[in-house]
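Question (not urgent): is this output format expected?
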Amino acid sequence: MSLRIPPIQCLLTFEALARLRSVTQAADELCVTPSAVSHRVKQLEQMIGTKLFGRADFSLTTEGIEYLAHVREGLVSLQRFPSANANPGRRKLRVAVTPTFARSLLMPRLRHFHEAYPEIDITLQVSIPLLDVVAEDADLTIRFGTGRYADVEHVCLIKDEVTPLASPAWVRENGPFDAPEDLEGETLLRSPLEPWRTWFAAHDLDWPEPTEGSSFNDIGLMCDAAAQGLGVGLVRLKLATPWLESGQLVRLFDRNVPSPHAHYLCWRTGTMERWECATFAEWLKSALA
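Got this back:
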């Protein structure tokens, strides 16, 4: 079988130019002429059939970002020598993540990432959505909100639907619940992350947003409270998976309502030029798809 692999000089040149964003600096690092740098990049683009650099400042195209991650992964592999004393280079990655997203969606999948990329050490840091509590030194941040983030680049990771959930014992004691109107007068748990008005409006209920009762700035805490029989929580179904699968929470109604917010992966400009960041971003999008 014949494999059409780009020359290593082209791959090294592409990586250097993507990192340095300067033909002159890349040429100095590789000990070649600037024209050789340009020629090698052009040769690589022709071989793989896609444009890697989008503008004169050598910013990468979407395809370029993805290909750079593969190239760097390959170069890291080639740097490993088959010696018992070899010490593979470690990559450090800091990710700020909301608590319930980490608990329900990230942690059950994280082992697969470590198995696929054992050279990347991840540090997880907690961020609290809507309260501006963010780990400022994080490389990547998972935010929950509207997606209107002018300060960072971002991509939508996952959208979700909401529905009222409660403990089986609470439903037996306070039910039955045959229609949304049956919730009138019941204890509704509150969270600024998931206002009830979205669900009310979808069911044509002219009810005001609850102003009394327990309130939580973390959906996981609200799920725990609902599981303890403290009332009904309006919860995103994907985040509620652990509680639903364990039977701690049950649905009150069959219909789901789209949440107006979503989870986004955010990063500062230039972050995705690091192989470990681009690799984790692509893996996370694929794992949640």
